[in-house]
Amino acid sequence: MQTGFSVSRSLLGYFEGVITLFYNPRGILAVETISNLGIMYYVFLSGLEMNSDTILRSRKKGTSMAIAGIVTSMLFGVGFLTLQQKLLDKKEKTHIKAYLFWCLTLSVTGFPVLARILAKLKLLYTKLGKDTLTAAMLTDAYGWVLFTLLIPAANNWGEGYYLSVITTFLFIAFCFTVVRPILTPIIENRTNKNMWRKSHMLDVFIGLFICSYITDFLGTHPIVGAFVFGLILPHGKFADMVMEMSDDFVTGILCPVYFSGFGFKLDLPVLWNTPNSVLMMLIMVLLCIPKVLSSLIVTFFFGMPARDGLSIGLLLNTKGVMAVILQNVAWDKRFLDPCSFMVMTLAIILMTVIVSPLINAIYKPKFRFMQSQLRTVQKLRFDMELRVVACVHNAKHATNIIHVLEATNATRISPVHVSAVHLLELTRHGTAILVSQMADLNNIAGAETTNYGPKAEFEIITTAFKEFVEQYNAVRFDTSSVVSSYTTIHEDIYNVAEEKRASLILLPFHKEYSTVGGSPEISHNEHCEINENVLQHAPCSVGIFVDRGLGSLLKTKMRIITLFIGGPDDREALSIAWRMAGHSGTQLHVVRIHLLGKAAEEKVLKKKISKSPHGMLSTVMDGVMQKELDEEYIFSFRHKAVNNNDSIVYLEKEVHSDTGEEIPTLLNEIDKPGYDLYIVGQGSGKNKTIFSKLLEWCDHPELGVIGDILASTSFGTHSSVLIVQQYMVGRKRVVYKCHNEMKNSPEVL
């Protein structure tokens, strides 16, 4: 659109020869054909993303917001257009078709655009985001119904109009009741057997053209047929495949031609040169009010805060492709005069552009993680519920983390609540995942969720956790998905952890190891960055799980070992191990490593310690306090656990050298008996000189020194490892450098 606007009469097109250069009359037909094909394919993909079943199951609140927004916008739209026409002092009467297009443009909401704005603002999985997304999806669906009714009116207002509308809806009903049941089993059978090839996409395109041609022949727009054809095709794996094959070509090549043509029609001087141009600009701003007003009324009726009503109204003002198409049709049919066209077009742009900064100012999403209560496993009593957020990228991760959760010793006195979160990357055409979640936004714990995106993957994850819960009566679970950009998905994880009041976030290590030999088979560097980001400001404790074939407690006993050097992370690791030791199928070994002599020397952080004696004194006092807390916790553990449980073994080892060579040797000695699971603290002895030297050679500094050694293939262990970081108020932020970069110590901020 910006490209088309830049060569329009408003800018470069003002100079003679520019328009002829970019829009040669001999090529107009070809450009129009490509642009129409582009928008037709785009609408087809939009229909393929949507789920009609989800729309039919929508709840009262979302339906009320959608209907109120449409009705209010249309009523205000009539008044604003009448006022605008009077300000223009037009003598001829405005046609009713102009009112219809103007009002419908004002009432629609761009669901895909809104979904991405909510994902960017990290409001997608909040109550506000869920309510807004539901209302937007319904508004989008109702918009398509009204569009189907409006286009025949634009082409033929009379007896032919009713015939066109009736036959169009009969055709849509035929597609859903006859064509869909025939195509669905055929397509799903081919998809499940991996029989689809790129050449078979021709069949899809032929069906698209047939539906588009029929709706065009019946008197409505071709894109109605394209949208319906996308809507009746099966979702899940097939939809993912079609979008993956055609997304780049459609959204990257064809659609820009359509939008650039729309931008070319913009003519700003028309607005400036009209009488009462200032009032025209005021009308443009006032067009933002109807949605906000209707949302405030509905939210007040449902007892929601006025701030939520204001925010939902602003978000529902977001416009998308539908608004552009309506404006284009109204311009081509000459229903709107140039001034009315410009006022509405600029209002569309204004509504969409101002949403993000205004919502940011109202909610300040980036700062809402600052106020977190202290949530750690160590602070939980043994008669309290352990709440865990288990993040997975695939079904294999789910199985691995379930094996860890089996050992958490869930009982009726000390139950476990697991919130399984499937992490998915938000791509340019990933709205299908968001749409299909709408029926699941208010799902109850343990309920099956609606299929979305990678359908089979999520079904396997849900089934795995359901079977886990069936084996352990004291475990509750709920499953959901987080669809966001990988660069900011950690903030969504924070959201889930805060909403669920979790004490622990479990993350899979970014490398998947072979169960035979222990060598890494697959490495996902983008997952590494997610783990590093989560560690920065997590609202609770975090555990990174390195799996080397940890078995299920239902089939075998589990030998667990915890290495305790000192510090909050080691205390948190011991707390988790202590809880696991209560399970009848576990054996716990705790090895406390004493750093003596030169090995106990503290590392002096010159950058962060003030030159005054108060800075050094504060550091020394903190070290003394941590030692006291370590001694107190170890004493409590030995008194309450070791002396009362024969399955717990407690040992102590000593390290004297500060060269760092003694640590790997000691770990090799400890590993000789063979264990199933190591549980270690991420920041074990991080202030000691001996560990600062070893940290410089770490491949994965986010695991800490001990965790990195145990996770290394050169160490030779076949044990799985759980690395734990305890949540602490005022904890220093550590910026880890990616493992595949040069090996340097992390930078402490």
UniProtKB/TrEMBL annotation:
<feature type="domain" description="Cation/H(+) antiporter C-terminal">
    <location>
        <begin position="561"/>
        <end position="728"/>
    </location>
</feature>
<dbReference type="Pfam" id="PF23259">
    <property type="entry name" value="CHX17_C"/>
</dbReference>
<dbReference type="GO" id="GO:0015297">
    <property type="term" value="F:antiporter activity"/>
</dbReference>
<feature type="transmembrane region" description="Helical">
    <location>
        <begin position="204"/>
        <end position="229"/>
    </location>
</feature>
<keyword id="KW-0406">Ion transport</keyword>
<dbReference type="InterPro" id="IPR050794">
    <property type="entry name" value="CPA2_transporter"/>
</dbReference>
<feature type="transmembrane region" description="Helical">
    <location>
        <begin position="310"/>
        <end position="329"/>
    </location>
</feature>
<dbReference type="InterPro" id="IPR057290">
    <property type="entry name" value="CHX17_C"/>
</dbReference>
<dbReference type="GO" id="GO:0006813">
    <property type="term" value="P:potassium ion transport"/>
</dbReference>
<dbReference type="InterPro" id="IPR006153">
    <property type="entry name" value="Cation/H_exchanger_TM"/>
</dbReference>
<dbReference type="Pfam" id="PF00999">
    <property type="entry name" value="Na_H_Exchanger"/>
</dbReference>
<keyword id="KW-0633">Potassium transport</keyword>
<feature type="domain" description="Cation/H+ exchanger transmembrane">
    <location>
        <begin position="11"/>
        <end position="358"/>
    </location>
</feature>
<feature type="domain" description="Cation/H(+) antiporter central">
    <location>
        <begin position="419"/>
        <end position="552"/>
    </location>
</feature>
<feature type="transmembrane region" description="Helical">
    <location>
        <begin position="160"/>
        <end position="183"/>
    </location>
</feature>
<feature type="transmembrane region" description="Helical">
    <location>
        <begin position="99"/>
        <end position="119"/>
    </location>
</feature>
<dbReference type="GO" id="GO:1902600">
    <property type="term" value="P:proton transmembrane transport"/>
</dbReference>
<feature type="transmembrane region" description="Helical">
    <location>
        <begin position="341"/>
        <end position="363"/>
    </location>
</feature>
<feature type="transmembrane region" description="Helical">
    <location>
        <begin position="278"/>
        <end position="304"/>
    </location>
</feature>
<dbReference type="InterPro" id="IPR038770">
    <property type="entry name" value="Na+/solute_symporter_sf"/>
</dbReference>
<protein>
    <submittedName>
        <fullName>Putative cation/H+ exchanger</fullName>
    </submittedName>
</protein>
<keyword id="KW-0630">Potassium</keyword>
<feature type="transmembrane region" description="Helical">
    <location>
        <begin position="66"/>
        <end position="87"/>
    </location>
</feature>
<keyword id="KW-0472">Membrane</keyword>
<comment type="similarity">
    <text>Belongs to the monovalent cation:proton antiporter 2 (CPA2) transporter (TC 2.A.37) family. CHX (TC 2.A.37.4) subfamily.</text>
</comment>
<dbReference type="Pfam" id="PF23256">
    <property type="entry name" value="CHX17_2nd"/>
</dbReference>
<keyword id="KW-1133">Transmembrane helix</keyword>
<dbReference type="InterPro" id="IPR057291">
    <property type="entry name" value="CHX17_2nd"/>
</dbReference>
<dbReference type="GO" id="GO:0016020">
    <property type="term" value="C:membrane"/>
</dbReference>
<feature type="transmembrane region" description="Helical">
    <location>
        <begin position="27"/>
        <end position="45"/>
    </location>
</feature>
<keyword id="KW-0812">Transmembrane</keyword>
<keyword id="KW-0813">Transport</keyword>
<feature type="transmembrane region" description="Helical">
    <location>
        <begin position="131"/>
        <end position="154"/>
    </location>
</feature>
